[in-house]
Design brief:
mainly alpha; 146 residues
Amino acid sequence: EALGRADQAMREAQEALGQGGDARDPQSRAMRHLQEGGRQMAQQLQRQFGPQPAQGEGEPDDADMAGNPEQGGEGEGGEMGEGRDPLGRRARDVAGNADQGSDTRVPDEAEQLRTRRIQDELRRRGAERERGAEELDYIERLLRRF
């Protein structure tokens, strides 16, 4: 629904530009509808698959995008939080790097060791050809992620 309204607003902007008019209002509406559609999709995915553990590590949760300008969402005045992109994520500099206050966390040595051990165990189990085809396929898909 929101994405359909965004599509309509983008068509209005295109028409305005084609006639040499001002497209700022329909473009702003399109951005608001796209944000709303993104929130709706995130909520639907969360209902369908449950909360994801990556929430809070660099991406705002639904409450932040719902209108709290300090957290990067769109406020009542329609302004985005400072240093945020239109979807409420932390903005990136010209080179594409996250700002220095990034929420990105580098895994410590213990986490790297645990990951390596899991990979080794998956490789060991994947080499055991007496396992069922379904299990071997699953192991192979897990290993592709690493």
